[in-house]
Amino acid sequence: MNKQQLKSTGIIFEVREFCLHDGPGMRTTVFFKGCPMRCAWCHNPEGLSANIQLLVNQSICQHCGACREVCQNPQQCVVCGTCVTVCPQGCRRLCGRSISAEDLAAELRKNEPFFKKYDGGITFSGGEPLAQIDFLEALAGLLHPIHLTLETSGYASSDVYQRAVQSVDFVFQDLKHPDPVQHRRYTGVELEPVLANLNWLKASGRPFTVRIPIIPGVNDTPETLDRFAELLEGRSGLTRVELLPYHQTAGAKYALLGLKYEPPFDPARPLAINLVPFEERGIPCRIN
Amino acid sequence: MTGRIQHLLSHVLDKRHTALRRDVAWTLAEHFCRNKVSPETRAAEGLRTMLSAEKPVFLPEETIAFTRTIKQIPDLYTKTEMEILRKSAYYHEKGCVFNIAPDYASTIKIGLDVRRAELQARLVQANAENDSTAQEFLSCALISVDAVLDLADRYRLEAERLELRHIGKILAHVPHHGARTFHEALQFLRILHYTLWCEGEYHNGLGRFDQYLYPYFAADLAAGRLTEESALELIEEFFLSCNRDSDLYIGVQQGDNGQSLMLGGVDKSGKDAFNALSRLCLKASCELRVIDPKINLRVSSATPLSILEEGTELTRQGLGFPQYANDDVVIPALVKLGYSLEDARDYVVAACWEFIIPGCGMDIPNIGAVSFPSVIDRTLHTSNAKTFDDFMCDVRAELMKEADHITASLTTVKILPGPFVSILCDGRIEAGRDFCEGNHYNNFGIHGTGLSTAADSLAAIRQMVFDEKLISLADLASVVDSDFKSRPELLAKARFGVPKMGNSDPAVDDLGKALLHAFADTWKGRKNNRGGIYRCGTGSAMYYIWHANELHATPDGRLTGEPFAANYAPSLNARVNGPISVIQSFTKPDLGRVINGGPLTIEIHDSAFRSSDGITKVAQLVKYFIDSGGHQLQLNAINRDKLKDAQAHPETHRNLIVRVWGWSGYFVELDKPYQDQIIQRVEMTV
Description:
The complex is a heterodimer.
Chain A: H1 3-7, E1 9-19, E2 27-32, E3 53-56, H2 66-70, H3 82-86, E4 92-95, E5 97-100, H4 101-109, H5 112-117, E6 121-126, H6 133-143, E7 147-152, H7 158-166, E8 170-174, H8 180-187, H9 192-204, E9 208-214, H10 222-231, E10 238-245, H11 276-280, E11 285-287
Parallel strand pairs in A: 2-6, 6-7, 7-8, 8-9, 9-10, 10-11
Antiparallel strand pairs in A: 1-2, 1-5, 3-4
Helix pairs in contact in A: 4-6, 7-9
Chain B: H1 3-13, H2 28-34, H3 39-53, H4 79-88, E1 90-91, H5 104-110, H6 112-129, H7 132-161, H8 165-171, H9 182-199, H10 209-212, H11 214-223, H12 228-241, E2 260-264, H13 276-288, E3 294-299, H14 305-316, E4 323-326, H15 327-336, H16 341-344, E5 348-349, E6 355-356, E7 364-371, H17 372-382, H18 388-408, E8 413-414, H19 419-423, H20 428-431, E9 444-449, H21 451-467, H22 473-481, H23 488-496, H24 506-523, E10 534-536, H25 543-550, H26 579-586, E11 600-605, H27 612-627, E12 632-638, H28 640-648, E13 657-659, E14 664-666, H29 672-682
Parallel strand pairs in B: 1-8, 2-3, 3-4, 7-9, 9-10, 11-12
Antiparallel strand pairs in B: 4-12, 5-6, 13-14
Helix pairs in contact in B: 1-12, 3-7, 5-9, 6-7, 7-8, 9-12, 12-13, 13-14, 14-27, 17-18, 17-21, 17-22, 18-24, 21-24
């Protein structure tokens, strides 16, 4: 495999049609696998690891034993996928596939007339698309002039961030917490690169929307919301802020990965969402 | 919604009006039998007896009267008589006229007194010509009209006695005379519709409500007698009246009552006819959130997105309304079948989704059904094909045999008379013949069940038997007989290792298309015994449960006891990419060739409708379906957790409404297999 091919091959875990909340019009979203962050409330845990993984839905397993019978590596799963093909209940699937930018672009371009006619397009999400910047750039290059949207945590070097943003038409920029200590505590990474990239984005004049997951007891105090609003002040292409209230169903997919969802906050605690700090600063804001 | 409508709504939802009902143990059939009374007279006397026994009642605050007080309508034939009749001819379902849409408008316009005069004049002619059939029909129609007028008069007197001046005033004019106002027209329509059920007809559609009532609505608005608000209130009251007696109109399941109402579409000259009344009807259904009337909306590629958004607002309520029909596909297809262009432009749906023409169609659009998976199964058990192409030839031959078999069972189809419904249908008085003898269109409709299961099965046979040679045809036949127990490893392959219809994969979509076209071919050119043709369609009615129960496992990995998809939709155990792919797959066939009706059904999670953005996108999805040449679409806003909770705690979900196959009903009133099938459908929610 030469370098060129390496660059333009990525790992994605889903191509989902008719995503309603990922940009204008009818959109298809590509979910990139792998994320540098470890947000305590992540509802797409299958997007965290950059590797292909085996998902097992124990709840519909009838214990027929077909998977055990064919398994060549019972001590340590090597994600060969053999068990997936024999399970009659469809309990098992491989999450993630390696695909070249060319192949994925060809698959997505089939709907190009459709995207055009219905003012839609393609959204890159994840996981964190920026973690596969070469693949992302190559793919975007092959998809223009289809309208492209990027959903990102913004946690990347400024070079990577700018390359990514410049290859799409619109950005959904996530913000998790305005305080560096709390940011590290709840996401596992530093806040600083995110803020640096946000400032560049604001200065660039490019259109973007900010999305803030509102987590009970983590970032829903009036002071925290006020600091979020402060960060977003000033002239920029910010179209609006969307507050995404925490969903009780966030933990639904952990069991598929054999993980337990144990958030370090009380998920049942009612949320206190206050839009005033945004409104005071003239920033359009809504709760999604 | 006004306070008055709120009260009427809770009155109906709490079923308080059922306290006004009584049971009657009729013995009319025995009397008719002893006296050898003719069918026509039985129908008229039955209606007269029923209406004479009815008592005028008024619900508090209502202004559109007529509520059933007797639960049972009289049987017209004894059990033995019916058995004998059924030996001499094929009577479909209950045997009487049903599943049609009459022409209410003409009678609402001129009044029953004029109808009465027409009948008398025609009777004079029949007497002169010694036309005994006409004499009997016309005399019976007169008995029916008089019975209706008598009950209406008693209603008027009771209204006056109770000093319900408003109703009294309206009943002083209709139904004797033609309606002058929107309110009178609605009261008249209520009386006619109510009477049909009392005559024994069922699945009585309401037709193009927004078209035939528009002149009254527009005139009232222009004259200042009505505002949009007061008109909406009247529409809502009328819609509620359709929910008063509907629990007495039981079909296969509670809610299956065929009270369909069509909105929008083009008029007879081809001009777009969606109007302010259409809009208010959508709004009324949105506000009321009850199961009747069942709203259908005719659209085309020229329909503005804003109308589709209004439709989507209704979808959002979770009632399974509106069901969309595409004029671009339906009208030319009906013309191809021999319907006149003018009539085709006037189409409505029968009880569920069968395209029929109000007033002039005496089609029986649900007379039979072909189970595609059974056809594949029989071919699998008999074919010696060496190639997949040969196998497909055998499938076509089997489809032809099935058509021959069904046709042979339908050579003696007859319908029992209905003199009252006849006067609401085009040209019957002039002809002097009951509607049951037929009218302009006398076509039979054949449903096609389980297309996706069959297409997926063909894909499995092609791949496993012919391409990969994993198993022989004969062995696969015994594998399905054993419910995959003899070769369990093939089950995973069949279910998850073979392409499924609904993913925009030509490998399997082309098989679905071939099957559907072959279905159309096998019925082409066949004539029925009533001078009509056969039309085939993509609907399943209740056969998605019945046919599935009759069949063991299928080659696609569907196991014994698992249902098919309802109507025209991906199979329940298929993993699909999403609604775009589903639409692409299911618009590949030439749907004009299977225009008996039957919607593509897509379930969408109710959270999709939360934002206005979501509404627009779902509306665009509808537009995509229409633009792609789809014929009929059913979208459901649904939430699986809510359905499961309703199954566990029916008492707290009394008013949860779901779409079943061509109609909407209360979830908790459905039998469990129907509930389970809906929950399974939702597993593939987008």
